[in-house]
TrEMBL record:
Protein name: Phosphoesterase
Region annotation Disordered: where it falls in the sequence: 40-60
Basic and acidic residues biased stretches: 44-60
Protein source organism: Sphaerisporangium melleum
Record InterPro entries: Pol/histidinol_Pase-like, TAT_signal
Length: 497
């Protein structure tokens, strides 16, 4: 039986000579784009997850929201519509993979826009190019999927598990449920009921995909004044498929907008905060409201790369500025498992390359995405250890970023809310702030320890850090994104029984 690499090489349809030529074209295209700051320092792949290398897992950086030349346009004067490449994003799939590798990513995913009959374009044109790219850049695990035109909502990642019939699985979901795939347009596809139907269909597949909301507040017109994506829709979707619909981008792409006079993230109505969507950045806001129900709802950070800012776009290359780290083996299945189950932290500007948050009590221990169980009768203290690794070297801008503060954030888990529109958790607070004098070096890591006293209620904790002196992330203006760096962990839950 052929192994996976041999199968993909055969499916790519290219001879060895053609592969070499194709690789040369991709490398030339990549080299043609100016790079600021020289070669970036690479993340240390030897950093073990949880300081113990659980199941051989390490923090592996990636990006699940990248566009290629297959984010194009359709001429609907013809029937069927005629697709033209490169109208919105311009780079070949292999170029994105080469640049992802250059900036230290070990996994990535092209998520191209849909449109009328786009499911056929994906199947017949884009997928063969992905197979070629996998052969040419094997160091980067390249997932198959798309930027899904979610019924009634803004765009979402639709990530397909890596298997022999992945192309057909995406074709089935896109052709049946993407709101713009039908031609002529079908208004019945653009409803919340259709979104829930899609999620249930995805949930019931033998190989479950992943769905993650993109730039969730980009259409919001104020703080808590929601646009296309609403708390109610997140809750209903997560209720329908809790192991498929698992989160949203904490830090959206298009972070280079200010370098060309635009808004960070393309958030023209209401800004991001330290580069993060208001749903994530606001302590006690929507993310905390969802976590306060005990939901396993995770955040990520992506590039949303279309056109590099040095060519007039608003984007960084995959991994150049934003990274989503997943604790996993270098394996498609385990990386997807890490995303599904929240073994994730995110950072901008390579402020850190590893982040472990551990809670322990009464002999029990839990790390990011896990649950620590404590005995109610003892009302025990919970010991929290925060272990982060600063970048050893320069980032892609040529800077040596420094962590100036780390915050420990705690909120109560009070159960499922009867109000589907709830977007605050008043119990969530910054319970401790730490500066350089509060942590100690242990090898390449910085270690902080803190005790949560007399924990008597279900709760969760999460961590963020910054290169700034802002006590809370401020609304973003035209400042350089390189001067405003943050990292965020996903939560550790505490259950009292």
């Amino acid at each position: 039986m052929k192994n996976e690499k041999a199968r993909e090489s055969e499916q790519s349809g290219l001879s060895r000579r053609q592969l070499v030529k194709y690789a040369g074209v991709g490398a030339t295209l990549a080299a043609a784009v100016p790079l600021v700051g020289g070669t970036p320092a690479q993340a240390d792949d030897e950093r073990k997850f949880g300081n113990g290398g659980d199941k051989g897992r390490r923090w592996r950086a990636g990006d699940h929201h990248v566009h290629s030349e297959y984010s194009g346009e359709f001429d609907t004067k013809t029937n069927p519509p005629t697709f033209h490449k490169g109208a919105d994003a311009v780079y070949p799939i292999v170029t994105n993979a080469i640049m992802a590798k250059y900036f230290g990513l070990t996994w990535a995913m092209c998520t191209d826009h849909g449109g009328p009959t786009h499911s056929k374009v994906n199947l017949e044109q884009a997928y063969p190019d992905l197979l070629r790219s996998r052969v040419l850049v094997p160091e980067v695990l390249q997932f198959w999927g798309m930027e899904f035109d979610a019924p009634a909502l803004d765009h979402h990642t639709l990530m397909i598990p890596h298997h022999a019939d992945e192309a057909r699985q995406l074709f089935e979901l896109e052709s049946r449920f993407a709101k713009y795939d039908a031609f002529p347009t079908d208004p019945g596809r653009d409803t919340e009921a259709k979104m829930v139907e899609f999620l249930k269909a995805a949930r019931d597949m033998p190989r479950k995909p992943l769905v993650i909301a993109h730039h969730a507040s980009r259409s919001a017109t104020g703080l808590g004044v929601w646009g296309q994506d609403t708390p109610r829709e997140f809750r209903n979707g997560n209720n329908a498929a809790p192991d498929v619909y698992v989160g949203f981008e904490g830090a959206p792409g298009h972070q280079a907008g200010p370098l060309n006079g635009g808004a960070r993230g393309g958030y023209g109505n209401h800004p991001t905060y330290g580069g993060f969507d208001q749903m994530t950045a606001r302590v006690g806001g929507l993310w905390d409201s969802l976590l306060g129900e005990g939901r396993h709802w995770w955040i990520t950070a992506t590039s949303d790369s279309h056109v590099h800012w040095t060519r007039g776009g608003s984007d960084f290359w995959p991994g150049e500025y934003s990274k989503t780290y997943v604790a996993a083996r270098q394996d498609y299945g385990d990386i997807m498992d890490g995303l599904r189950n929240g073994r994730i932290f995110v950072t901008t500007g390579d402020l850190v390359t590893a982040l472990d948050v551990t809670a322990s009590s009464q002999g029990g221990k839990a790390t990011v995405s896990e649950t620590l169980v404590v005995n109610r009768r003892n009302r025990s203290d919970v010991e929290v250890e925060i272990r982060f690794r600063p970048l050893d070297g320069k980032n892609a801008h040529g800077d040596r970023p420094e962590v100036r503060r780390v915050d420990l954030i705690v909120g109560q888990v009070t159960g499922v809310s009867a109000n589907l529109d709830a977007d605050t958790n008043p119990t969530t607070k910054v319970v401790a702030r730490f500066g350089p004098k509060d942590w100690r070096r242990q090898g390449q890591d910085c270690v902080i320890r803190h005790t949560l006293r007399d924990v008597g209620a279900d709760s969760y904790l999460r961590v963020r850090g910054t290169s700034t002196d802002e006590m809370e992330p401020q609304a973003d203006g035209k400042e350089s994104p390189w001067e405003d760096l943050w990292f965020y962990s996903n939560p550790v839950f505490i259950r009292v029984r």
